[in-house]
């Protein structure tokens, strides 16, 4: 079938209002951090986008003191009806500045503009709208007549959904009356610092939100600070485990949202064309930099060849390239380190005997790009079936019976998400009961809603974000 030629449709970079330099945000102001400034890079071109001031350990202390003061003197005393107005205002400002935020996110992270524009930024706004609604109704959330906030929350987020992860963390914390010290990832600090401008625009009381760019050691300083009451972390299982060890024996409350190796399970009775769209969305959305990505496809043996053929054709139509082009499906890998990690795991797949197919799509010469790849004949023992690749690489395994599908899907140390494709409702319910995963999607994948709790089992972490359940993580209950 012929594929249309596309004309370039680039979004204007000028919309991002990119500045030469950005600074940490403490006590309502942008301040000179005393850490070594970092340079944030556009992963699609490898050019430096801006210089970003970073925090040092002493800045962490200053930010925590500001957050504590804001907590005791203003925020924890404010009626929920008033807090709600600030959250609502922030949500509206995210909407007003959505194009700017989307372009900036795509520049700093490498994700396609159609994803930052249609998914990340609107969902971030939705989290603030949703939690604005809870702020004055906490007495009806099922946690007693007067649930109390915890105090100061230390929050550490990764680079794969920079603004959205910030919203997942800050919106529930503020709605429940906590104040925040947040560290964005080293490679993607920019939208968090524009969010700080939004806090100023919303006239949020100083100290309620503090944003400290910096490397992992600043994350560690936040975790070990003795005047922080709660730690919320999203990132790798390895760092999550280190944080859990650090927090052990203290009174700090902890939620961890870590890695995943989700099974996307396709039965022979599934609507296969629809399933192929779900498989593509499950693993190639955001270059596969998604903790709940459907990175292990389990397909029933009787339809395996047919599904693989349809899948390879569909994947070969994906366009890889300039993240700011509205026609781009797959943008840049976020960093040279992540690209090296993906390459290493793909080589292990070759060496262990899996059958690799890589899309023949043209790949840009400059920047960090990796063509969408599908491995067939994958065995459960292979590294590509066990480890989180966090890239546009799918591992395909087969099964014959529902029991075998469950056994293979659960054969992982993780447990964040899963997908089931079948036309039988009873099978969906039976499977969902057997799968050890925090989220199970049926005949769809990667659907997010602020009202739906999200979180994992086993090495995917613990605690839930979103929905009524997510409030609990920020309340003294
Ligand atoms: P990390 O877990 O290292 O980073 C997540 C956040 O934690 C970043 O803000 C990071 O800072 C910070 N951090 C790093 N070390 C510490 C520490 N000791 N204490 C507190 N905070 C710390 O993930 P990476 O970015 O290094 O990615 C590595 C791998 O992790 C990826 O290849 C992927 O497999 C997985 N990953 C999974 C994610 C998920 O959502 N499941 C998200 C991101 C990564 P800094 O940015 O400065 O390093």
Keywords:
single chain; alpha/beta; Aldehyde Dehydrogenase, Chain A, domain 1; Aldehyde Dehydrogenase, Chain A, domain 2; six-stranded mixed sheet; globular; binds NADPH dihydro-nicotinamide-adenine-dinucleotide phosphate
Fold and architecture overview:
The structure is a single chain. The chain has 477 residues and is α/β, with parallel strands linked by helices. It folds into two domains: 13-258 and 457-476, Aldehyde Dehydrogenase, Chain A, domain 1; 263-442, Aldehyde Dehydrogenase, Chain A, domain 2 (3-Layer(aba) Sandwich), CATH 3.40.309.10. It has 15 helices and 18 strands. The protein has helices spanning 57-75, 80-96, 98-109, 113-135, 162-175, 190-201, 216-224, 237-247, 272-284, 304-316, 336-351, 383-386, 402-409, 425-434, 467-471; strands spanning 21-22, 25-26, 29-30, 38-41, 48-52, 152-156, 179-183, 209-211, 230-234, 253-257, 263-266, 296-300, 355-358, 373-376, 393-399, 417-421, 439-442, 461-462. The strands form four sheets. It has a seven-stranded mixed sheet, with helices on both faces. A six-stranded mixed sheet has the order 8-7-6-9-10-18, with helices on both faces. Strand 4 (38-41) and strand 5 (48-52) form a beta hairpin. The radius of gyration is 22 Å and the shape is globular. The N and C termini lie far apart (59 Å). Residues 156-160, 183, 185-186, 215-216, 219-220, 223, 234-236, 239, 242-243, 258-259, 291, 338, 341, 388, 390 line the site of NADPH dihydro-nicotinamide-adenine-dinucleotide phosphate (NDP). NADPH dihydro-nicotinamide-adenine-dinucleotide phosphate (NDP) is lined by residues 156-160, 183, 185-186, 215-216, 219-220, 223, 234-236, 239, 242-243, 258-259, 291, 338, 341, 388, 390.
């Amino acid at each position: 079938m012929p594929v249309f030629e596309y004309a370039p449709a680039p979004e204007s970079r000028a919309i991002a209002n990119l500045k030469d330099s950005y600074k940490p945000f403490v006590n309502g102001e942008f301040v000179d951090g005393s850490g070594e400034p970092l340079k944030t890079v556009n992963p699609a071109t490898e050019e430096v986008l801006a210089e970003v001031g970073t925090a040092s350990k002493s800045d962490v202390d200053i930010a925590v003191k500001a957050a504590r003061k804001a907590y005791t003197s203003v925020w924890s005393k404010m009626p929920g009806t008033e807090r709600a107005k600030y959250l609502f205002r922030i949500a509206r400002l995210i909407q007003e500045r959505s194009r700017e935020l989307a372009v900036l996110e795509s520049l700093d992270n490498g994700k396609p503009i159609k994803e930052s524009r249609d998914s990340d930024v609107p969902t971030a706004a939705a989290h603030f709208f949703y939690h604005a609604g809870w702020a004055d109704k906490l007495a009806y959330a099922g946690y007693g007549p007067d649930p109390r906030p915890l105090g100061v929350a230390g929050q550490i987020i990764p680079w794969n959904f920079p603004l959205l992860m910030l919203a997942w963390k800050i919106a529930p914390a503020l709605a429940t009356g906590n104040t925040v010290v947040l560290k964005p990832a080293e490679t993607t600090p920019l939208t968090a610092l524009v969010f700080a401008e939004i806090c100023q625009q919303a006239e949020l009381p100083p100290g309620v939100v503090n944003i400290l760019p910096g490397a992992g050691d600043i994350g560690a300083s936040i975790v070990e600070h003795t005047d922080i009451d709660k730690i919320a972390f999203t990132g790798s299982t390895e760092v999550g485990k280190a944080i859990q060890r650090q927090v052990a024996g203290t009174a700090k409350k902890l939620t961890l949202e870590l890695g995943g190796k989700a099974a996307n399970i396709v039965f022979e009775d599934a609507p296969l064309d629809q399933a192929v769209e779900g498989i593509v969305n499950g693993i190639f959305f955001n270059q596969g930099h998604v903790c709940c990505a459907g990175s292990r496809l389990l397909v029933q043996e009787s339809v395996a060849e047919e599904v693989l053929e349809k899948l390879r054709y569909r994947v070969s139509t994906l366009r890889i390239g300039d993240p700011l082009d509205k026609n781009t499906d797959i943008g840049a890998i976020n960093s040279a380190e992540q690209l090296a990690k993906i390459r290493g795991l793909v080589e292990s797949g070759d060496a262990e005997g899996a059958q690799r197919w890589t899309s023949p799509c043209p790949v840009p010469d400059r920047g960090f790009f990796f063509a969408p790849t599908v491995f067939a004949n994958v065995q459960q023992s292979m590294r590509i079936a066990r480890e989180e690749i966090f890239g546009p690489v799918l591992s395909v395994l087969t099964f014959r019976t529902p029991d075998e599908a469950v056994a293979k899907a659960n054969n992982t140390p993780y447990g964040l998400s899963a997908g089931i494709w079948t036309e039988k409702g009873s099978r969906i319910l039976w499977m969902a009961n057997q799968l050890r995963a925090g989220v199970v999607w049926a005949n769809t994948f990667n659907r997010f809603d602020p009202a739906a709790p999200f979180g994992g089992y086993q090495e995917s972490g613990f605690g839930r974000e979103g929905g009524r359940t997510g409030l609990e993580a920020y309340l003294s209950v």
